[in-house]
Amino acid sequence: MPRTDPAVIVALDYPGAREALALAQKLDPARCRVKVGSELFTAAGPSVVAGLKSLGFEVFLDLKFHDIPHTVARACRSACDLGVWMVNVHALGGPRMLAAARAALPLGLAHLIGVTVLTSHSEHELAELGLGSAPARTQALARMCRDVGLDGVVCSAHEAPLLADLAGDAFMLVTPGIRPPGTPADDQRRTADIGEALAAGARYLVIGRPITQAPDPAAALEACARAAHRKGE
Ligand code: C5P
User: Fold this and answer.
1) pTM for the structure as a whole
2) Looking at the annotation, which residues are catalytic?
3) pLDDT for 162-213, tens place per residue?
4) Over the Cα atoms of the chain, what is R_g?
5) What is the domain partition of the chain in residue ranges?
6) Strand (E) or helix (H) holding 206
7) What is the CATH number of domain 8-232?
C-alpha cells in the first residue's frame, strides 16, 4: 500500500507488457496507481499485474466483467487472487450479478466498482438499446450499485454531480476523461480538468494520454498529483 492515497490512476493503455512496464518505471508509485485494461491484460496476462506490483504500484484491473452471476463472481475472485487494488463490473449485469460479485469480494479486499453508462454511448444508441436517457440511467444504475454494497462507480465528471447524494467515503466516484488545461482532448468528448472533477465529487481520476504521451511522463504525473492534492493525502 502506498503511504498516501493518491487520487491519480494512470491508464496504461499499451499493447504489451514491455511498453507498460517501461512507462511505469518512470512513475512514482507514491504519487499514483495504475490501470490495466482489456488491451494490455489480453496481451500480457497476469504477469503484467505482477510486474507492476513488484514496481510498487497498486493496480486497478479494468476488465468490466459482465456475465452470469456465477461467472462474474469467479472472475472477481480470480482478480482478487492477483492482488489487485480495484476491479470493476458492468452495472447492466443487474442486481443479482452485482450481489454475486460483492459476495465474492468481501469488503476490505479489492475495491469493487460498477460501470454505469459508457460515456461512448450517444443518446440515440441508448434509446436503441431501450435504456432511456443517460442521466436517468446513470443515476438508476449507480443507486443499484450502492444498494448492493459496491464501493463506487465509474462515471464522467459531467455525471458526477448527479450522484452527489450517493457519493461519500463509502461510495466513491472514479472519473476518466480528465484533461489538464492545455492538453489535447484526443478522442474524449466530455472532458473535465482535475479541479472540476474533484469539485464534482470524484475521489479517483483516471488519466491516460496526458501522462503517458507527455514528453516527460514523470513531470506530467507530478503536475497532475499536485493539482489533485487534497487535505489528508
Ligand atoms: O488517455 P485517456 O486519459 O483518454 O484514457 C482514459 C482511460 O479511461 C482509458 O483507459 C479508457 O478506456 C478509460 N475509460 C474512459 N471512459 C469511460 C470508462 C473508461 O475513458 N467511460
Assistant:
1) 0.95
2) 64
3) 999 999 989 999 999 999 888 888 887 778 999 999 999 999 999 999 999 9
4) 17
5) 8-232
6) strand 204-207
7) 3.20.20.70
